[in-house]
Design goal:
- The protein has helices at 35-45, 60-65, 70-76, 86-94, 108-114, 116-119, 141-152, 213-218, 230-240, 258-273; strands spanning 4-8, 29-30, 33-34, 50-55, 96-101, 124-127, 131-134, 155-161, 171-179, 182-190, 201-209, 243-247, 251-254.
- With 276 residues, the protein is an alpha/beta fold.
- It has one domain (4-273): Spore Coat Polysaccharide Biosynthesis Protein SpsA, Chain A (Alpha-Beta Complex).
- Strands 5-4-1-6-11-8-12-10-9 form a nine-stranded mixed β-sheet, with helices on both faces. A two-stranded antiparallel ribbon has the order 2-3. Strands 7-13 form a two-stranded antiparallel sheet.
- Helix 5 crosses helix 9.
- The protein is globular and about 60 Å long.
- The model has no long low-confidence stretch (mean pLDDT 95).
- Bound molecules: 1-O-phosphono-alpha-D-glucopyranose.
- 1-O-phosphono-alpha-D-glucopyranose binds next to strand 11.
- It comes from Maribrevibacterium harenarium.
Amino acid sequence: MIRKCLFPVAGYGTRFLPATKSMPKEMLPIVNKPLVQYGVEEAVEAGLDNVTFVTGRGKRAIADHFDISYELEHQIAGTSKEQYLEGIRYLINNVNFSFTRQNNMLGLGHAILTGEPLIGDEAFGVVLADDLCVGGEHDGVLAQMVKLYKQFRCSIVAIQEVPEDEVHKYGVIAGESMMEGLYRVTDMVEKPAKEDAPSNLAIIGRYILTPDIFDKIRETPPGANGEVQITDAILRQAQEGCVLAYKFKGRRFDCGSVDGFVEATNFVYENIYKAS
Ligand code: G1P
């Protein structure tokens, strides 16, 4: 079964400067929890309790966050403040974290390939922490995808409909409908112009990938923005075998943009934080 989840977290977060000058963008809080912790919790909920970070320079705070802080533990032991650490303690005690570094920013495909030694020859999840997903009354998005993987045993990308004038921000798929909300991918284009987009079904940052993806990435030349794109490598899988695109149930916030970040903050505050 799927046990491992890869988090590419080497990106700079320039849109949030100066906040991200000396702090990883993944550590920006949505209310009281860093963005990346939401992603890790979603992975764990889906049963993926081996979490691999592909990090880069200036990202050490992520490794520290997912480790015990003895000073802090000592300070607050026996006080009412201990409750604030319950969630993160659970992760530290139940997840196996590993880290590797991407020392050149050559694209998302390259970041995923950098994680190969820690993933090995098995299917795995990928979470782009910038995309905060909430399942609401449904399972988390990765858990929904793991269920599908059990049935179909192939790579799966999460998709959502976006307005036509936003397709240029995403990888966009074309597909044959298999059943409600599920497509067999026939084409994929990374960041197409509106007139070149094969649909308005955009890939969001949740993937399940079979391990042949690593060879496909190696065969993939740089594409959009001169970067090795995971979208191009997955298209090769789709052309030679089968890749599914899944219109997930729930909501997604683009926390890589200031607007999406603020929207996520308001949503989490009203619907999750206040209710807890
Ligand atoms: C990446 C992927 C893109 C996907 C997007 C989802 O782009 O390359 O295919 O649609 O994530 O957030 P990025 O946002 O890193 O530019």
